[in-house]
Amino acid sequence: MLRFFIQPQLNTIVDSVIGYEMLIKEYRDGTWRMPASFSAIPAHDMAELLIATAKELSLKVGSVSFNVDRNQILDDQLIHALIAAQTVLRPVKLIIELIENDVKPSVSDEQLIEVVTQLNDFGIQFCLDDVGSGINTWPAVKPLLPYTRELKYALQNYKEHLNESAAENHVTFWQNLATKHQMRFILEGIEDDNDDAWADSMNIDLRQGYYYGRPTLMKIRPDDPD
Question: Which of 23, 66, 154, 161 is deepest in the core (most CB within 10 A)?
């Protein structure tokens, strides 16, 4: 069984929720777990779940975000589901987060740009997730920037093996890139007071992490297990 969990994204300057990220989980062995492989989830199942969840979302927020890898975003069935979900969610914006995982066979920038342009035409926005890690690194993502509205930087990817100065340099680079291209910049992975204070020191307004709210199950049936 697959379901989405939603986690809030905040603007800490005005202390308000601006959106939710939808995180897919699988129910097995009596508990909810991350899927072993995102690419292994059939597009048909993902499409049906996305539309069913969209129908249950009546959120007075600006956006909801949905993760895909480079193979999934090319699937026609999923593309049609994304467009249908945006129709259901309107005026809430649907944002597609392209995760940093590598895929085989590889997907070209030209293929991605063709699909993202199509989605943009339906009001669906594009986000590069976990920038600076996996294959979402600079300058690999440079060709995608004209079609991108949001960059997300995962603090947890770096704080265990970078000193504070190096982490500041990484974040500043992506912050400046977002500002230059008039994108939103979200710092995710904020887990405690120290992380929150560090985000304050970096003048980052848009944030996500356990410190502000853990993912909660979005039920689409009354008998969905908690």
Answer: 66
